[in-house]
Amino acid sequence: MSTGYGATDDGMGVVTCLQLIQYFTTPDHQPDRGIVILLNNGEEDWLYGARAFGQHPLLPYIHTFLNLEGAGAGGRANLFRTTDREVTAAYAGSPHPFGTVIASDAFGLGFIRSGTDYSVLYNVYGQRGLDLAFFKPRARYHTNQDDARHASLGSLWHMLSAAVHTTSRLSSNAMGNRFVGPRPDGARNKVRNGRPSDGVWFDLFGKGFVLFGLRGMFAWSLTLLVTTPLILMFISYVLHRVDKYYLFSSRADDVRGHAADDDGHGLGDEPVFLGGWKGFFRFPFAMLVSGSLTLGSALLMKKVNPFIVYGNQYTVYVSSSLIFVKVDLLMIT
Q: Given 43, 44, 69, 86, which residue is catalytic?
């Protein structure tokens, strides 16, 4: 970009790729399968760099890819999105994983509309891969503050460690034929890189990574949706049988019996008022008010100062970092 120096977008990606070349060309680190390092330009102008690579004779031999990008000026390298569960497994063992499937779903559902080289490689050429990018501080993105002075050595190491691990796994024979075989769409003009499956993934405080299949999540969710009401119905039945079911009850008979006090008056003749409906509408009312205030504030900021989302990250709670992702650099294996 002409508005920025490009230290993070995408100087750190370039440095990472150069270090990957050095790493995989040293003894004992040679990959089991071929790795192609691609430095392309023209991403800001309709992704022409990635489209031009489609004319290269190496394209049919490439089965997976790893995008290295900067959509901010530092911070941790975020796993923005992946094409499937199998390629995500290659990232799962990174020393300090960071990212969730929510961002990937936001891209897939169209909530984040920015186009990237990832989109060309996946949608046009049918490759399977990952998108790894910096996303904050967003205010320095594409500005003259995206320079070496404001860049972080820790951010570079974070991206490099994830890239080394992911590339090592994708190029390892341990993957077997996971990325080789017939495509589910049967397209003959695209590489035969196997049948992907959907996954759910997220990091645990940057120390661990959870990854499981979407089918498994659906099965567990359906089980909980079915068994939870049944358990609640059973508990309600038991409480009703023992005359202890007071939910939504406004009154109940006194269970102290009818013994007489010192004045001869019977105890337990009067019902006990429980107030079971008290506060029932408190939560919906609070939810409606808080939601209206939040939505109204967002619409007001958009109308009065639409550029506030590019300001201080503490000014706006909802981060806009996932909205505009740019991809200038590709590392393809």
A: 43
